[in-house]
Design brief:
This protein has helices at residues 10-17, 40-54, 84-94, 131-141, 176-185; strands spanning 2-5, 24-25, 62-73, 76-78, 98-109, 114-126, 160-165. It is an alpha/beta fold and 191 residues long. It has one domain (2-185): Maf protein (Alpha-Beta Complex). Strands 1, 2, 3, 4, 5, 6 and 7 form a seven-stranded mixed sheet that branches. The protein is elongated, with a radius of gyration of 17 Å. The two termini are 16 Å apart.
Length: 191
């Protein structure tokens, strides 16, 4: 079966390449707004499923991977900032705090219409950051396309005091341990 990544994220594409499986990408057209009263973790998992469903009609006889990540502190959500001032504001708010980056991953078998979905939380403790550190980081990294404005796989690691979670790739946006398990259940041979 063809494997389809329902994402145009270069980070997710780079992660999926680690599994050494051929795949294609498709852009899911999904409204990523949280539902009223929805917990941020539930939002990530719902959106992972919706992204996989969104491209299913164009990819029959496929295994479709959807993924979404929501960074949150309590019920405050930190999305992709899009601009440097928003990234600076997010990092100021997260300074000295523990933020949960909840990554949902879904796998949809369009042949059997079977769905599986997992949510992988990563707790990230930001150290107390000065305004100068935040501004230098944003100017150097320009983390405008990632939830929470911090790329742990690059210079953003310097902003952190600690992180904990079951899958280090979840923080980057695609939990490969969970995904590999789901793919094996669909008879994909790994390694």
């Amino acid at each position: 079966m063809k494997i389809v990544l329902a994402s145009t994220s270069r980070y997710r594409q780079e992660l999926l390449q680690r599994l050494a499986l051929p795949f294609v990408t498709a852009k899911p057209n999904v409204d990523e707004s949280p539902l009223a009263g929805e917990h941020p973790a539930a939002t990530a998992e719902r959106l992972a499923i919706e992204k996989a469903k969104a491209v299913a009609a164009d990819h029959p006889d496929s295994l479709i991977i959807g993924s979404d990540q929501v960074a949150y502190l309590g019920f405050e959500i930190f999305g992709k900032p899009g601009t440097a001032p928003r990234a600076i504001e997010q990092l100021r708010r997260m300074s000295g705090q523990t933020v949960v980056f909840h990554t949902g991953v879904a796998l949809f078998n369009t042949r059997t219409e079977h769905f599986s979905c997992r949510g992988i939380p990563t707790r990230v403790r930001f150290r107390a950051l000065t305004d100068d550190e935040i501004q230098r980081y944003v100017a150097k990294e320009m983390p405008l396309d990632c939830a929470g404005s911090a790329k742990s796989e690059a210079l953003g690691i310097t902003l952190l005091e600690s992180l904990s979670g079951d899958d280090p790739t979840a923080l980057i946006g695609l939990p490969l341990i969970a995904l590999a398990e789901m793919l094996r259940r669909e008879s994909v041979e790994l390694p």
